[in-house]
């Protein structure tokens, strides 16, 4: 018996992976932007530091990470971009020096004399007075236009010396600066907000952990 119904060709549908297309589009856009920036360098002699800051901001906001530095970007909140080998070496040196730093003794100014940095960056600089009072900061140019940038800064330890905070205020006019010390002092007017607090593990009433301080100030 002949079939009265014509054969209906089967239609095969394939679900499009939108997440893959989105990543592909983002990668394409990033490549175009980077090419345009290099053209900008050649044609207008724009500072390479300015371009680096722009590229870093674009990469961080887009969620794109280069394959060769995905581990370091993920573990440093998009701050360091380096090979897995270099990043693992950096972490090893950090843990090694951090262990040495924790060997305490009774000498005065122990931290100033013995507590050495565990992490280095490409463009670190020191703000404030030399000796006790000043502090090191890392790649400050990456915060963008300093006069228009709104950033939150915690300065731990003061002893009534505010040259670091004053130097920061000159660079970041809109910064919100909080200074902490176990003794009571007063910040210079319009420079910072002082908090009498002892940074510790927060397991007793004499100290507070960094997480506790951030919660108290509404900075979580």
From TrEMBL:
The keyword DNA-binding appears for this protein: no
Pfam families named in the record: Methyltransf_22
All residue ranges annotated as the Methyltransferase domain in the record: 86-200
Signal peptide region: none
Transmembrane parts of this sequence: 24-42
Protein keywords: Membrane, Transmembrane, Transmembrane helix
PANTHER family membership: METHYLTRANSFERASE-LIKE PROTEIN 24
Protein name: Methyltransferase domain-containing protein
Organism: Rotaria sordida
């Amino acid at each position: 018996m002949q079939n009265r119904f014509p054969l209906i060709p089967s239609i095969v549908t394939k679900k499009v992976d939108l997440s893959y297309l989105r990543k592909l589009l983002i990668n394409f856009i990033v490549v175009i932007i980077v090419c345009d920036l290099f053209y900008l360098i050649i044609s207008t002699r724009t500072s390479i530091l300015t371009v680096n800051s722009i590229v870093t901001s674009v990469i961080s906001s887009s969620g794109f990470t280069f394959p060769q530095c995905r581990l370091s970007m993920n573990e440093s909140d998009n701050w360091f971009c380096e090979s897995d080998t270099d990043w693992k070496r950096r972490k090893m040196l950090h843990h090694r020096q951090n262990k040495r730093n924790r060997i305490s003794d009774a000498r005065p100014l122990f931290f100033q004399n013995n507590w050495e940095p565990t992490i280095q960056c490409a463009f670190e600089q020191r703000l404030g007075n030399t000796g006790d009072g000043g502090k090191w900061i890392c790649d400050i140019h990456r915060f963008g236009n300093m006069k228009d940038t709104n950033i939150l800064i915690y300065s731990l330890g003061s002893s009534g010396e505010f040259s670091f905070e004053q130097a920061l205020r000159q660079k970041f006019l809109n910064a919100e600066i909080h200074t902490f010390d176990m003794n009571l002092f007063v910040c210079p007017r319009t420079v910072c907000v002082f908090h009498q607090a002892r940074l510790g593990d927060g397991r007793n009433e004499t100290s507070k952990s960094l997480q506790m301080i951030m919660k108290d100030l509404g900075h979580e």
